[in-house]
Records
---
Amino acid sequence: MAQQAQISKKRKFVADGVFNAELNEFLSRTLGEDGYAGVEVRVTPIRTEIIIRATRTREVLGEKGRRIRELTSLVQKRFGFPENSVELFAERVENRAACAMAQCESLRFKLLGGLAVRRACYGVVRFIMENGAKGCEVIISGKLRAQRAKAQKFKDGYLISTGEPKKHYISEAVRHVLMRQGVIGIKVKIMMSHDPEGKMGPALQLPDNIIVHEPKDDAPLMQPAAEEAQDYE
């Protein structure tokens, strides 16, 4: 964030957190239709780089880069960055099935389009599982059919809930859908598969993962020399 005056460490962390939260909120509202999947801020001595991750980068960039220039101008004016000190980039999400934000937005637009709740949720769960995820869970709550609000869960596969691996393996997102009958809440949790290269999933192995090796070929047993001598006698 553009900070000219010297501030304490505590205030700097709070200011950075508020900046990240507001930027994420602004981009998720603006680029929700284009498969927005998160933002990363890199601060260098020369400039601040903001990397927008999305499933459809062409729409984020716009015609001849027009849209990304508009977004850069808005961010610069809102947060008081000096001229040419902030730059926005668009990065494509390789596996959109493993991105909870993208799937949440997909489900949101399905519901707004009038698709039945159960069918929409099962469609998302099946798409996630078919693209190599280890497990997933979709929770949807609100006035689904009748006037009484309720919650429904759709689960498939293996899903961890606690511990250090949760930080690496679980992708989670929450969205609110403004339907005619009221607000519906959506929560999507995806457990990614292990990838040694770290591209399609975390490179860190699960701590309770057990690898069973194939047994080695047993060498033929040889008779001791003393016993052989007795046999000849």
---
Amino acid sequence: RAPSSPGMSARRRQRAEEAEATPLAPEADDTLPAAAPPETSDAQRLPPAAAEHLFPERRPPTAFERLFAAVNGAVRPQPPKARHEIASSTLLQQLVCANSVLSALWAAGWICLFLWKASVWEPPLHVVILSPTLYIAWAVFEPIRLTLGCLGNLHERIELLGPFMFSTLAVAVIHVYFLTAQHYLGWITLQVEYPMSALLLCIYVAELVVGWPTARLFILKAEANFQLVSAGDLDER
């Protein structure tokens, strides 16, 4: 065999060094599962017309929605910083106490004015039935409502403050009737009756405005005090 030249030996050594420097490609492992194809959403699998019908684009908020979000964020209560922090509202308690005094005065004043008007002017039959019925309903539910608001705020009980809020809406509707509807039903409404009912309506609106963030604060505090128990403790109970 012919002896190899020095040039050929140098090229062989260079090729050997290049082969050692080049990393070998990893062999495919048939035991590993193949990569799953990327998932497509329902909107991508549907035709464009059907996707637009089932998944419509969210419209921008209206001016009323932005105003409501701003007001809601302004009155949003801050969560309590400690478990034993007092969450009751002093302003709400003052409103309930003032409401109890004004309700007693309004109850006495309305019945006296109604009897006097009935003796001077003959009321229509529907007014004779409707007005006393609403007055009796208000006289029954108003003490219960004030008791729920007072105890619910003092003891931080959302199960009492919630019915207080809903019943406030109901009695407010009754006072709207006494303030406006009697005139349209053909019955006389004296000038002194307007400020009487309007003052109570203002108290009701103030109670709703103050009671809403107070109720939310009670819920936040109840969530902070909530403790998880194990299934074994529940079985023992």
